[in-house]
Amino acid sequence: MISTTRNLLSIKRLLNIHRLQPRTVAFIHTGQIMNSIKDLSENKWQPQDALPPHIKELLTTGSAPSNYMLAFLQIIRSLKFQKRTGWLDHEIPEEATESIADHMYRMGVISMLVPKGVDSDKCVKIAIVHDIAEALVGDITPYAGITKQEKHRRELATINYLSEVIKPYNEVFSKELLDLWLDYEEIRNIEARYVKDIDKFEMIQTAWEYEQQFGLKHNLDQFYTSRSAIKTKEIGDLCDALLEKRNKLVEDSKAK
């Protein structure tokens, strides 16, 4: 059953790629969305390939440091427009689907509430940069036809590229950006562990909210399985409180 579900989602994803292709191309020209998940080739895609000409022009040799900052801001702007792919794959209406920036913003707020002894400032910073590479890479799900290794290669190449883009303007931030991203990816400290858990919890929270909004017709059950990946007690307890309410929602729906 799991294999069948994954195959169906893969088919849906491919259909969505073709369905959204004209819109994606249009956004490339307006600078809103610059990545292309349609390129499934291994060890080929590079972050520079996703940049539109008007941003490349800012990054020409000899540009003023401010141009690098302006280019960096235009690149990450696309996070405000890119919809989270998993919800689209489950046919959540596009106009109701959260963006990558929406997800990271609420993670940042939740990160302010970590328990005493955990550096909340560091948690917030990790939260708001952990998906920043998706500005160029895109939100690649396990069903997109891209291997886990290739996804990591693209994201690592992109975070290194973004670090280099901002370096002429602020070398300290350039290093911090890369360090924060690596903290998250490699779970190098307790703050990264909390943010990893907050990432899962925020996703589960969103699934529950969509079910409250649209009912159970979108079959979001798989998102709740991420509870098992949450390791910290505080975030786990919060998630369990949510799951109790979600279970009641399911029971009430079946009783109707």
Automatic annotation (TrEMBL):
It comes from Candida tropicalis (strain ATCC MYA-3404 / T1). GO terms for biological process: deoxyribonucleoside monophosphate catabolic process. It holds the Pfam family HD_3. Homodimer. Residues 100-204 form the HD domain. Coiled coil: none annotated. Its EC number is 3.1.3.89. One of its GO terms (molecular function) is 5'-deoxynucleotidase activity. Belongs to the HDDC2 family. This is 5'-deoxynucleotidase. Its cofactor is Mn(2+); Mg(2+); Co(2+). Catalyzes the dephosphorylation of the nucleoside 5'-monophosphates deoxyadenosine monophosphate (dAMP), deoxycytidine monophosphate (dCMP), deoxyguanosine monophosphate (dGMP) and deoxythymidine monophosphate (dTMP). GO terms for cellular component: cytoplasm.
